[in-house]
Design a protein that fits this description.
alpha+beta, Outer membrane efflux proteins (OEP), four-stranded antiparallel sheet, about 60% helix, transport, cell outer membrane, efflux transmembrane transporter activity, coiled coil, transmembrane beta strand, elongated
Length: about 475
């Protein structure tokens, strides 16, 4: 016995598709990484308020004539020496550069978050457009299949009438040709639906194409009343809510901070420093000790002029003794030292580097201000175009509804005349083709209107995941 089971294919809703795309889309992930990079920028800016602390150590062995690091005497021997040092530095004043870099990092993070928001809106619209395209292709396929079913029924009835001699042979040939054309259109529609479905799966990064499908029912025109508002009200709301304007505004703020940071190089820099160092060596040293048994000796130091009498002086009677190195820990305390102080750096002339950097950032500020103005103009044009497109799509949809009603009446009338033999098969098939095309055109106008309406609602400030279909 073989038991097989096929899991039911999950049908994705539009909201699920958008949410999945926002979580897995590569462009969205890249924008999320950009936000994380700004966290690092903020961390580094805050780190500038902390002191710089560095520690160093060195170990060396000397052979031959060398200077003893403790006595600074030259001696020919082999010895091991080690040094250790800790330095700390802190910037007390540098033209408020650190404060402005922190402010710049915060603005940079807000700009990255806004770019992420814009990317999410773009991906949401892209997914919605592809999703609606799949629904449109499926709806057109259903229209063609339904109409071909009617054609097949008509083919059977016409064949009976031809066999009975009521209709000429040409009528059955006309309907057969029409049936063949419809079946070809069905194949093309199936391919279009499958291709659009695969394109949507690829957009969502879903590789299992065979088990991917969408929920193609329950989507209708849901108007939030945006079209009833004035176009200038929508434009002003878009300027307040759209990410592209806020991104341009943040770019201006970043450019202003860059100018301030560049100007900070005109000011002196005051720093404090502290250092601690110590050393160790295992080199032996030579010291002079007094002979306890004979502590002093007399030595001639000169002669009296004229008499020739010797002048004798008393000196300590010493002898040289080799002394080994002190213990490691003792030397660390014996040989240590500290240094501390302030350092003032006053810029006087640096080849106009600071002046050029300031001017360069001022030019960049003017450029970002122009870009902000251009972004506002572009948004006005885009929103106005979206408003006109939505209005035109509504009129097109209403016209398609009227055309379908008229074509349906014409088709029913032609069918009644054909059934009683008052018209030929060619005229009837032409009426049916026009009726079929009007249904397909209504589907196209409907989903085109839905998409353009949602684009306008998005500009009005409705979040992508809250759009209603």
């Amino acid at each position: 016995m073989a038991i097989t089971s096929q899991a039911q294919v999950k049908k994705w809703t539009l909201k699920e598709s958008v949410a999945y795309a926002l979580e897995n889309n590569i462009s969205v992930k890249q924008s999320q990484l950009d936000v994380e990079l700004t966290d690092i920028e903020t961390l580094q800016a805050l780190g500038n308020f902390l002191p710089d602390i560095n520690m160093s150590a060195g170990l060396s062995e000397n052979t031959g004539l060398s200077f003893n690091p403790l006595t600074n005497n030259a001696q020919t021997t082999t010895f091991l020496s080690a040094t250790g040092r800790i330095n700390a530095g802190y910037t007390l004043f540098n033209g408020l550069r650190n404060f402005r870099e922190v402010q710049r990092a915060k603005i940079s993070k807000l700009a990255a978050q806004l770019r992420l928001t814009k990317m999410e809106d773009d991906i949401s619209l892209f997914v919605a457009n592809n999703y609606l395209q799949v629904i449109l292709n499926k709806a057109n396929l259903e229209v063609l299949i339904s109409q071909n079913s009617i054609t097949k029924d008509q083919l059977t009835r016409t064949q009976d009438l031809v066999d009975a001699g009521v209709l000429p042979e040409g009528d059955i040939l006309e309907i057969r040709a029409n049936d063949a054309s419809e079946r070809q259109a069905i194949v093309n529609a199936e391919n279009a639906a499958q291709v659009s479905l695969i394109s949507l799966a690829q957009l969502l990064l879903i590789k299992d194409y065979q088990n991917f499908d969408i929920e193609d029912e329950g989507y209708d025109i849901v108007d939030e009343g945006v079209l009833n508002k004035g176009v200038y009200e929508i434009i002003e709301t878009a300027k307040e809510n759209r990410a592209e304007i806020k991104i341009a505004e943040k770019s201006v703020e970043l450019a202003e901070k860059d100018v301030q940071i560049a100007k900070s190089s005109y000011y002196p820099t005051l720093s404090a420093f502290f250092g601690y160092d110590t050393r160790f060596t295992n080199a032996t040293t030579f010291i002079q000790d007094i002979d306890q048994d004979n502590p002093s000796i007399f030595r001639e130091i000169g002669v009296v002029e004229g008499t020739g009498q010797s002048v004798v002086g008393q000196f300590p009677n010493t002898f040289t003794r080799r002394v080994g190195a002190d213990p490691f820990v003792d030397q660390l305390y014996q040989n240590d030292g500290i240094s501390y102080g302030l350092s003032l750096n006053i810029p006087i002339l640096n080849g106009f580097s600071t002046r050029g950097n300031v001017k360069r950032n001022q030019i960049n500020l003017e450029r970002t201000q122009n870009q902000l103005e251009q972004a506002q103009l572009d948004l006005e044009s885009t929103v106005y175009q979206a408003y006109v497109d939505a209005k035109g799509a509504l009129k097109s949809y209403e016209a398609a509804q009227s055309a379908l009603e008229s074509q349906e009446l014409a088709y029913n009338y032609a069918k009644e005349r054909y059934d009683v033999g008052l018209t030929n098969a060619f005229d009837f098939s032409q009426s049916k083709v026009r009726y079929d095309n009007s249904k397909i055109e209504l589907n196209r106008a409907k989903y085109d209107y839905i998409f353009k309406l949602k684009v306008l609602e998005l500009y009005f400030g409705i979040p992508a995941l809250e759009l209603k279909f």
